[in-house]
TrEMBL record:
It comes from Cytobacillus kochii. Residues 90-382 form the ABC transmembrane type-1 domain. This is Amino acid ABC transporter permease. Belongs to the binding-protein-dependent transport system permease family. HisMQ subfamily. GO terms for cellular component: ATP-binding cassette (ABC) transporter complex.
Length: 394
C-alpha cells in the first residue's frame, strides 16, 4: 500500500502544471499587476501635485466656500465651508434620485400595463410614448423641458394658476404643509394604528380563509386607522398639519413649496426617459410568465385585473427586479446631467469647489464616492427584495 502511494506521489505533476494551482497563480499574478498599475497611477498623481506645489488631502473642506447655492434642503450661507456646500450637493442629488425612482416606477408600471392592454387606442398610445421618448437623447429632453417649457412660462406677476398650483418662469409653486401643535402625538398614535391594523388584517384574513366568506380584511385594517385618526383629532383638537396654497407676493411666492425650473426639468426628463425602459421591462416580465398561469386563473373565474395582481405579477416580479435595479442606478447617475440646466447637485457644486479650491482629485473622488454610495445602497435594497421574491426550493 505504501509502495502504491509512493508511486502516485512520484508521478504527480509539478505545481506549475497542476490544474488546481495554476488558476490560483494566475489570479495572484493578475492582482499584483493591478495593484502595481494602481500604485503607478497614484504615485504619478502625487508627483505631479508636488511639482505644482499642491498636497493631496481633504483639509480644504474646512475652508470658506464663498459662493451661493440657489436651492438647499438645509440652511446654507456663502460663509459656510466647502464641506457643507458639498453636503448640499449630495442632498440635492439624493432628492432627484429619490423622487425620480418613485415617480418613474409608477409611470413605467402604468405605461407597461397600458402597452399590453386589449384597448387598441391605449396600447398604441403607450407604444408611441415608449418609442418617442426612449429613442430621444436624455440631454435633449432635459433641454426641451427647461428651455421650451419652464423658462417661457409667464412672469411671476402674471403667474399661471391651475387649481392650487402656480406656474411662472421662476418656478412652480405647489401647496405645502405646516406642522401644528400635537404632531408628535399624532405620529405616535399613527404608528400604533399601523401596528393594530396589521394584526387586525392578519386576523380577518385568517377568518376569511377559514370561513370561505369574503369579509374584506383591508377595509377592517383601514377602519382601525380611521378610528385612531378620529381619536387623535379629539385628543389634540386639530390636524397634524395644515396645507397652505401658494400666492404671488411681489417678485416671489408666498407660502407653498417652490420647484425651480432646473429641478423640474431634470426630474421630468429623468422620469419620462427612464419610465420607457421600465415599461418594457414590466411588459417583458409579464409576458415571461407561463401562459398556462393566465389560463388557470381564467378557469378559476378570476377577472383579468385580479389574475394580474394575484397570479401573474407576483411571478413576473422575479424577472422584473434585476433589470429594474439597473434602471434605478442609471437614473441616479444620469442626475449628473442637471449641471446642464443649472440645478446645483453634487457634480455642479463639485466643479465649483474644484475650480475655487484647486483640488481636482479630491473633488472628483468625493463625486465618485457619492454616486458609488447611492448605487451600492440601491443595489443592496433591491438585492434584498430580489432574494425575498425568489422561489424557495427544497
Amino acid at each position: 500500500m505504501s509502495e502504491l502511494s509512493n508511486q502516485k506521489k512520484s508521478i504527480s505533476p509539478p505545481f506549475w502544471r497542476n490544474k488546481k494551482i495554476i488558476p490560483i497563480i494566475l489570479q495572484v499574478v493578475f492582482a499584483i499587476i493591478v495593484l502595481a498599475f494602481g500604485y503607478l497611477l497614484i504615485n504619478n498623481a502625487l508627483s505631479g501635485l508636488r511639482q505644482i506645489g499642491l498636497q493631496l488631502g481633504f483639509d480644504f473642506l474646512a475652508n470658506t466656500a464663498g459662493f451661493s447655492i440657489s436651492e438647499a434642503m438645509i440652511d446654507y450661507q456663502p460663509t459656510d465651508t466647502y464641506g457643507k456646500a458639498l453636503l448640499i450637493g449630495m442632498l440635492n442629488t439624493l432628492r432627484v434620485a429619490f423622487f425620480g425612482i418613485i415617480l418613474t416606477t409608477i409611470l413605467g408600471l402604468i405605461v407597461g400595463l397600458s402597452r399590453m392592454s386589449n384597448n387598441w387606442l391605449l396600447s398604441k398610445l403607450a407604444g408611441a410614448y415608449i418609442e418617442i421618448f426612449r429613442n430621444t437623447p436624455l440631454l435633449v429632453q432635459i433641454f426641451i423641458w427647461f428651455y421650451a417649457v419652464f423658462l417661457p412660462m409667464p412672469k411671476i406677476q402674471e403667474a399661471l394658476q391651475i387649481g392650487p398650483m402656480l406656474f411662472s418662469n421662476r418656478g412652480t409653486a405647489i401647496p405645502w404643509y405646516e406642522e401644528n401643535q400635537g404632531i408628535l402625538l399624532w405620529g405616535i398614535l399613527f404608528f400604533v394604528s399601523l401596528v393594530i391594523a396589521f394584526f387586525v388584517y392578519r386576523l380577518m384574513l385568517k377568518k376569511q380563509i377559514e370561513s370561505g366568506k369574503k369579509i374584506f380584511p383591508s377595509l377592517w385594517a383601514l377602519g382601525v386607522i380611521v378610528v385612531v385618526a378620529i381619536i387623535s383629532y379629539v385628543v389634540t383638537g386639530n390636524t397634524p398639519v395644515t396645507f397652505h396654497a401658494p400666492s404671488v407676493a411681489g417678485n416671489g411666492f408666498d407660502g407653498g413649496f417652490v420647484l425651480s425650473p432646473g429641478f423640474s426639468a431634470i426630474l421630468l426628463g429623468l422620469v419620462i426617459y427612464t419610465s420607457t425602459f421600465i415599461a418594457e421591462i414590466i411588459r417583458a416580465g409579464v409576458n415571461g410568465v407561463n401562459k398556462g398561469q393566465s389560463e388557470a386563473a381564467k378557469a378559476l373565474g378570476l377577472k383579468n385585473s385580479t389574475a394580474l395582481r394575484l397570479v401573474i405579477f407576483p411571478q413576473a416580479i422575479r424577472i422584473i427586479i434585476p433589470p429594474l435595479t439597473s434602471q434605478y442606478l442609471n437614473l441616479t447617475k444620469n442626475s449628473s446631467l442637471a449641471v446642464a440646466v443649472g440645478y446645483q447637485e453634487i457634480v455642479s457644486i463639485g466643479n465649483t469647489v474644484m475650480n475655487q479650491a484647486g483640488r481636482p482629485i479630491e473633488a472628483i473622488a468625493i463625486m465618485i464616492a457619492v454616486y458609488l454610495t447611492f448605487s451600492l445602497i440601491t443595489s443592496l435594497f433591491m438585492n434584498y427584495f430580489n432574494k425575498k421574491a425568489q422561489l424557495v426550493e427544497r
